[in-house]
Amino acid sequence: xxxPVPPLFSFQECLWFLNRNYDDCLxxxxxxxxxxxxxxxFGDVLFRVSEHGAFLRVDVLEGNSSSDCGxxxxxxxxxxxxxxxxxxxxxxxxxxxxxLAYMADDFSGLRLMGISDMFEALCWSIIGQxxxxxxxxxxKRRLVERYGxxxxxxxxxxxxxxxxxxxxxxxxxxxxxxxxxxxKAEYVIGVARAFVEGTLSRSLIGALPDFEARQKALxxxxxxxIWTANYVxxxxxxxxxxxxxxxxxxxxALAGHGIIVERSEKDKIAAFFQDYxxxxxxxxxxxxxxxxxxPLT
Length: 297
Fold this sequence. Notes:
Layout: E1 2-4, H1 11-18, E2 28-30, E3 33-40, E4 43-52, E5 55-62, H2 67-80, H3 88-95, H4 103-106, H5 118-127, H6 133-147, E6 150-153, E7 156-159, H7 164-167, H8 172-177, H9 182-197, H10 202-206, H11 211-219, H12 226-237, H13 248-256, H14 266-275, H15 280-290
Antiparallel strand pairs: 1-5, 2-3, 3-4, 4-5, 6-7
Helix pairs in contact: 5-9, 5-12, 11-12, 13-15
């Protein structure tokens, strides 16, 4: 199937984000292509996304290839790559900001890559709390390989994130053997049990009226602080207010662009994001992207 690409879309920039030299076990990036296995209402499916002129081409490699499943996967890809958003207002704003105007050219077409499964996003953000990304990806791989399903295709293994029902029955001591801290093991299992019990779900959070209500509902659960709640609201709900305040990479990027001098300058940070109201998470994503460039002079 072919999905038309919108203006200001770069498959290559999106692939760069998906392939930042981290060991992500939930997709595989090749030359001009990404492969991913997901659970669908039609069974587990492995698909490939590649660039095809003014389209993204999606091929089902394993699993249900019906038109209904194809429609589901196409919608998944559009959401994953945030293809339904018009970035024109954001780029116009960038171009008016002398400190960040270069981003409109250098990162042109980069989309805020999402995590549609809120349970996965929650577990990932809990795993990543207060550790470096390299170690976080190692922990995620250990969790996924032990508790998740997988699809084998052409001598490769493609993993699917574990379901809440499975992780709800995981044992803390097993996660501890994987080098999870005691608290992280308890939090992941606790969140899984909340999903199984029905006290936490994407539909429950999505039904709430605004960002503040969603954030409050998330942080009511043990192990979910403001940073984790905001990250999930950014990645799973595309909430522009979902700024991961306190994120070290974000603070470094703000300092590198002369927006702040000290990390403690909360008023300057608040004023900066207020200036980008409606695009706060997008400018966060682009600031993260800037960390891969040479130091600013």
